[in-house]
Queue: 3 jobs
Job 1
Amino acid sequence: MKISLPFALAAAAALAIALEAPLATAVLGLIAFGVLHNVLELRYVAGRFAPVLSGRFLAVLVGLISAIVLCRLAALYVGTPARYAEILVGYGVLAAGCAHALRGRRLAGAAALLSVAAAVSLRFPGYHFVVLAHLHNVVPLFFLWEWSGRLRRPGLFRCTQIAWVLGVPLLILAGAADFALGGVPASTVAAFAGDPRQIVAVSAPPGASTLIGARFLVVFAFLQTMHYFVWVYFLPRHAPDAARAFESRAPWLRGWRAWALGGGLGAALSVLFVIDYASGRALYGAFASYHAYLEFPVLLALVLSAKAGGAAGSQLVFRQTASERQEPAAVSR
């Protein structure tokens, strides 16, 4: 119960502020925690799944994601063509993950599925990027589910995660919270962040009505806040083994240095956010590609669990020490 309580309290608080001020929640949350959660998430993923993210496979992923970074920067100047290029390279990242984790018929089937999905994304790029934005906020469910395998009785914890990741957003989209919607006011935040409709467009399907757009914005603000809670508070506190594994690979980021790096870069970027929010958002979005896209090959390995040895499906990735099998001090039995 104790390990689930922080999520229930955080979800209640995140929902309250997202309903009251969704635009401010999304904008100010990004400025305050965006860069820091990038650094801490990369630390966790690279540490926890080191057997997957290593060697030639890691080099291929870094190369592909670096191309996505260039696409996002190029989009500032050439617009649509760069967005199409990002879609293609993004599916290249997924293809690399499938090629690493699958063989034979399963690989052929995955290639066919990715081809169809890529065609749909290229046909409807606006929907592609909205789905990508929300999917990124949902990703913690998979990492938390995997982490909870160390608990003796993970049932309540997993139900709590499903409730806030899927249950609450579905209720909001169904209109259950319309009576409490705070709308998208032309506030001080909107004044420096620019046209609120452009911010809503990041989270709402193209052509959505004002009401539907407000619902999607609330969902985005809520999930983004919980996303930060997971990466900035929960996993650093309850998964120190992942940090230690990362530090063995990058000792120059040991201990407080990772926090200092994230906080320092975040503070520097916040100046640009305040001066020119659009430029700050574009720069952040480009370099945030590393943590956003690196998740997907790891998730594929988690879900597919196919390739022995180097992939996440092998026993090497999920082998737990005796200390990991014991519940953390904060966990209630």
Job 2
Amino acid sequence: MKSVNIRTLRNNGAQVLARVERGESLVVTRDGTEVAELRPRTRPSPSPADLIERRRHLPRVDPEGFRRDVDEVLDPSL
């Protein structure tokens, strides 16, 4: 795990937090001693009810039209 010292955290807090936001975990050190850990928060998975509600707002898909569109783009011999 990579580390960042307290001075860097204080002076460049936004950049350090951007790294964490992108998924990096960091150990914060003071005078070479590890004092804290910064890691991304885990995000809860959507509940089945949320997924069903999202599905209700999706546009309807015409299966035949979708197939024609795909066939125009892809080589049908694949």
Job 3
Amino acid sequence: MNSFAILCVGVDLSVAALQTIIKVQQAINDAGDTADAVMKIVAEQACEATGAPGAVIELAEFGEMVYTTTAGSLSGTEGLRLAMSGSMSGECVRTGKILISTDTETDPRVDLEACRRVHARSMIVVPLVDGNRTQGVLKVICGEPDAFSDDDVLLLEHLAQFIAKALARANVMDAKAHAASVDPLTGLANRAAFLAALETMISSAAGTGNPVAVVVYIDLDGFKPINDVYGHAIGDEVLQAIGHRIAHTCRSDDLGARIGGDEFAVLLASSTVPPDPFGLRDRLVTVLQKDIHTSAGVVSVGASCGAAVVGGADLAEAVLARADAAMYADKRTRSEPRR
């Protein structure tokens, strides 16, 4: 017997419920324990074990409940959004308690219009709880009133634990992936994440021969003296301010990165509006050269920028090298005495 089933021994579950739990665990082991796989298996088994025509896993997102994984009669409704306020699912998330509606037509807690739309006359809503956090709900519905038993409630409570644990693991993995791809000082992407995004963009356009993006490479002028005079702590404040300015100057589809030291890059994605590297370069130079307020007072830096067009036959490192070379050409131009 698997570890989860052992935990259920002594709990007032029927033999059929225990068999369902073991079946779900085996299916998860076979399919892999990614959150998507777990949610799909549990939703399908929730329908089968309770006799419910439909099941859905709704995740809480910015004040709404989002239909994320569905089964049975609710298949195809993924992406449906309901306000948390005024819905039983929302109340379930707020309270962290199992909620049952024996007849939605007379139940003031439900969103009656939404229930009628999906033919939910009765339903069980179970919270997906991990620690002190409720991330969403597992819900089964039926078109008839008073369709579910206490055994159904108990079984769904145990099935919900599979989902909650899978979502918790996914959140941990997402956090680790985020930490591995982000420069901890500035919050921008790091070099590895920037190159990976650039490589993905190149691969998606391989063989087209058309420009797919532009890389802008930035090097700060006059940063080393700040570090030498004020120390690395003040230098870090300057880099954080520069990272913030880059992030807020770029478009939402662009990717800003700290390549290393005082060098940064921006990947301008192709869109319906062609990327304008020269316009962005000019905006960045203007913004980055503004005074920076630090703990040691006001300081300023300059910025040299170079750009490279990205094609479908390129290599990511080669593109970065071209942009770097263009940046140094710009730096030499800036350092030449004016006549």
